[in-house]
Amino acid sequence: MFPKTEEFVRASILRSGATPRELADRRLVRRRDCEYSLFLSVEREVVLPQIRRGFPSVDAFIEYSGQVMNRRKARSGRSLELQLKAIFDEEKLLFDHGKATEQKKTPDFLFPSAAAYHDHSVSADRLRMLGAKTTCKDRWRQVVTEARRIERKHLLTLQEGVSQEQHREMEHEGIVLVVPKPLHRHYPNSVRKKLVSLDEFIAEVRGLQRVG
Length: 212
Prior knowledge:
The chain is globular. It has eight helices and five strands. By secondary structure, the chain is of the alpha/beta class. Helix 5 links the parallel strand 3 and strand 4. The protein has a five-stranded mixed sheet. The longest helix has 33 residues, at 58-90.
């Protein structure tokens, strides 16, 4: 049986080191790289034997290759959430993961909690949300409606660059891009100036929670 994403995440943290002293940006990128290497090594052991055995028909080959691709896509998104959750725990932030806001919308992360979000005695400027998507493309629009109380919404991505036009569209919708520092070099200069690193986002959330 193919290991679950949670197992790959735990293994990557153990193998690449779990010290919180390292900047969160580098911690995330390094652990993701380690996890992907582990995933590929397991995938090779599982998938290659089937490829070598061959397939009775083109349809059987297409079905199997679709399963392989779907597993890759599902693992990547889930992995990013779990890697971030581990880092937020290490940084001792208060947060909820995958809890509902309005109309069954479920942002990836709410700070300090879903209970605080639903408590209207808590000022909206004390709240933060973070979406997590390996790539933006058109899926960033989902974040816009995930927490209506929070005007400025943060979206973490590992995508290596977005166009100036797409970034302007995100800004217009109140989206602030959070990108690990090692990936900033892939963005146009005009966009790079407006990116927030993961460490900067953590510092902002921690500052709010200390005051609160």
